[in-house]
Structure formats: structure tokens, C-alpha cells
Design goal:
The chain has about 270 residues and is an alpha/beta fold. About 45% of the residues lie in helices and about 15% in strands.
Length: about 270
């Protein structure tokens, strides 16, 4: 088997349990020859099963709150030390909305919660990139991928303030992608994934109906977490070295659809 990521080193943020998209990306990256550090917030690590993934992928775990500049600085210092040099890729799979968790309607958001949503789900990407940039932690032609969703572009009412967070996340990727590309040839992209059954995603009201609708609308159906892992590995690899500042739809064609005729007319 050709190992697309042989010799490449990275950091994967956000693996919680086997349902996590970051978990699937880690497994695939390891299969493709990468070595990496796993990182998550301390509270998330206590809730999840990251130790099992660490053992499977022979990956050290370094706890870090991605909303803390100091935590991120320590994370990168320890990663560079354990890796023996600069890294080649980062996966940002971080998102959380207290408003969604507490079922606040979009027309009655708690603004302290809203601030937390943006800090955790979007500003954290800027913090990660800024820390890496200042520390010159990523090799030339390295790749940073952050996971997004089409609600950053279109209205999905139950996605609530996470929609604003994803829009901001995509903007950060474009803006920082310019600066990092110009200075170091480092690529920064977001991937807008199909609805996927993760621990967080499944908590959105009406998620099953949401999932089924997208699956019916998309000519290829919904992209699975395993499909996403393959796509992220490609973006980490040298085969995607000229792709940057993009929001890449990985959704079976959903983002280009108006209506799927099969949903409104009987099959012949």
C-alpha cells in the first residue's frame, strides 16, 4: 500500500470517541504512515475514550484548551519536542454551542453562550494558526484543515449560533490562509461535511430527519466519516499542495442541489 503521509507529522484536535470525525481521520492518517499528537480540552478528554485511540495509533496525548493561548503554546512546544522538529498537518475538529446544548431558540440566544460558541468553534482556529505561525511550527507546504458545515452559508434553523461560528471559521481559514501561504507556503482549508452521526451532531434537534433529507437530496448520498477521513488525508498530502483558502464541500453533491426530482415524483 502506498502511504500518502509517510514521514509526515501533525496534531489532531477533537477526537472524543469512535463516533468522532477526528477519530476516523486519526485512524486513517496512522494507516497512511503519519505520526501525530492527539489533543483535546481536559474536560472532553475525561468524557471520551481518547486513550484507546492513543494506544491504537501510538500517538501521545497532550491536553490543551484551544481557547487558551498559553495552553496552545505549551501544546506546540511539547509537540515539536516529541516530534523532533516541525509538523506537517493539523486537523481542527472543534465545535460547541452552549445555546444548542441548553435548547435556547435562535430568537432568544444567551449572548454569553454565543460568545463561548464563537470562541470555541471559530476563534480557536485563529488561535491555533497564530500560535503555529509565531512559533514557525509548520513545515513549508504543510496543511491545516478545519471541519465546517454548509449552515455557514445557508439557513438551517436548528443549527442555531453554530451557523455563525462556521461562517467565521471559514473566513479565518481564507484570511489566515493568505498570510500563511505567502509567508510559508502553508495551506489552510475548511471542509464542509455532510450531516454525520457524531456525539455532538446527534444532539441537534431533528438530526435524524435532517440526515435523511440530505441523504435523499444528494445524488451520491451523504458522505460518511470514513469518506471524510480519506479526503482529509488527501488534503494533508502533497497531492493537494496547491489547494488553499477554500471551503471544500464534501457532501455527495448536496451543496449544488436545488431539488432532487426523485423526492417529488414517483420513480418510474
Amino acid at each position: 500500500m502506498t502511504q500518502l503521509l509517510k514521514g509526515k507529522k501533525g496534531i489532531i484536535f477533537g477526537a472524543l470517541d469512535e463516533q468522532s470525525m477526528a477519530w476516523k481521520v486519526a485512524e486513517k492518517a496512522y494507516e497512511e504512515g503519519a505520526t501525530f499528537v492527539l489533543s483535546n480540552a481536559p474536560i472532553a478528554m475525561r468524557m471520551g475514550e481518547i486513550n484507546k485511540l492513543s494506544e491504537k495509533c501510538n500517538a501521545p496525548i497532550i491536553a490543551a484548551d484551544a481557547t487558551s493561548d498559553e495552553d496552545l503554546k505549551v501544546l506546540f512546544e511539547k509537540t515539536l519536542e516529541s516530534s523532533g522538529g516541525k509538523i506537517d498537518f493539523i486537523l481542527h475538529s472543534i465545535g460547541m454551542s452552549p445555546n444548542v446544548r441548553k435548547a435556547r431558540p435562535y430568537t432568544d440566544l444567551n449572548y454569553e453562550y454565543f460568545h463561548k460558541t464563537l470562541d470555541v468553534s471559530a476563534m480557536s482556529l485563529h488561535r491555533v494558526l497564530q500560535t503555529a505561525f509565531k512559533m514557525d511550527a509548520i513545515n513549508e507546504w504543510g496543511s491545516v484543515v478545519a471541519l465546517s458545515y454548509i449552515a455557514g452559508q445557508r439557513v438551517f434553523p436548528y443549527y442555531s449560533d453554530m451557523a455563525e461560528a462556521k461562517a467565521m471559521l471559514e473566513s479565518v481559514a481564507r484570511s489566515f490562509g493568505y498570510h500563511y501561504g505567502k509567508a510559508k507556503n502553508v495551506r489552510v482549508n475548511t471542509v464542509s461535511q455532510s450531516p454525520t452521526f457524531t456525539t455532538a451532531g446527534s444532539g441537534v434537534p431533528g438530526f435524524q430527519e435532517f440526515f435523511d433529507y440530505a441523504d435523499s437530496m444528494s445524488p451520491l448520498g451523504n458522505a460518511s466519516a470514513d469518506d471524510l477521513a480519506n479526503f482529509c488525508v488527501c488534503l494533508f498530502s502533497d497531492y493537494a499542495r496547491m489547494v488553499t483558502m477554500q471551503n471544500l464541500y464534501h457532501d455527495g453533491g448536496f451543496s449544488s442541489m436545488g431539488i432532487n426530482v426523485g423526492m417529488i415524483l414517483p420513480e418510474k
